[in-house]
Design a protein that fits this description.
About 80% of the residues lie in helices and about 0% in strands. The longest helix is centred in the N-terminal third of the chain and has 20 residues.
Length: about 180
């Protein structure tokens, strides 16, 4: 036991002496900064968004479908208050719609509406719900169409809207 302890102390001393003093000081002087989860997530969201934009430039249906999925991924990775998430969701919805995928288009529009309203963007929220209602009508889903129109109608009463914005929403509602 005494021999093992003495051996451990001797090895530790030998290793410490073997390290150059300069390297030890340099190690102590360098601050280590780790990326936060929010920074990592934001970076991944930006990368997905950039890849989606690059795919959209191809103007091919398969590329647009992949771009729509990347826009969804980018939106999902973004913080609750990031307005780019709503933009990505709307872009995904338009790409899905253009590719004939009405279900995914409607889902993206509804999610965009929810996220916009959560941030206080009543106009984009109402617009997204009205677009979702139009897609639901195209899908012959009258119940969903009424639900989305009711959400837009409720938003049209928001004190945050100007008269012009309210009129536009009411016009789209058929009022």
């Amino acid at each position: 036991m005494k021999t093992t302890t003495s051996l451990s102390i001797a090895l530790t001393a030998a290793l410490a002496a073997a390290l150059p003093a300069q390297a030890l000081r340099a190690q102590q002087a360098l601050p280590v900064r780790f990326a936060t989860r929010a920074e990592t997530t934001a970076s991944a969201a930006d990368q997905a968004h950039d890849r989606a934009i690059a795919l959209m430039a191809r103007s091919q249906i398969t590329a647009n479908r992949a771009a729509a999925r990347l826009h969804l991924e980018s939106a999902q990775l973004r913080e609750a208050g990031d307005s780019l998430a709503v933009r990505c969701l709307l872009e995904a919805a338009h790409l899905f719609y253009g590719g004939g995928d009405l279900s995914d288009a409607r889902s993206a529009l509804v999610t965009a509406g929810v996220r916009a309203v959560e941030m206080g963007d009543v106009v984009r929220g109402a617009s997204a719900y009205l677009d979702a209602a139009a897609v639901a009508q195209e899908q012959r889903d009258g119940w969903a169409q009424r639900q989305y129109m009711d959400k837009a109608r409720l938003l049209s009463h928001s004190p945050l809207l100007t008269g012009e914005q309210r009129s536009e929403i009411n016009h789209r509602l058929g009022n």
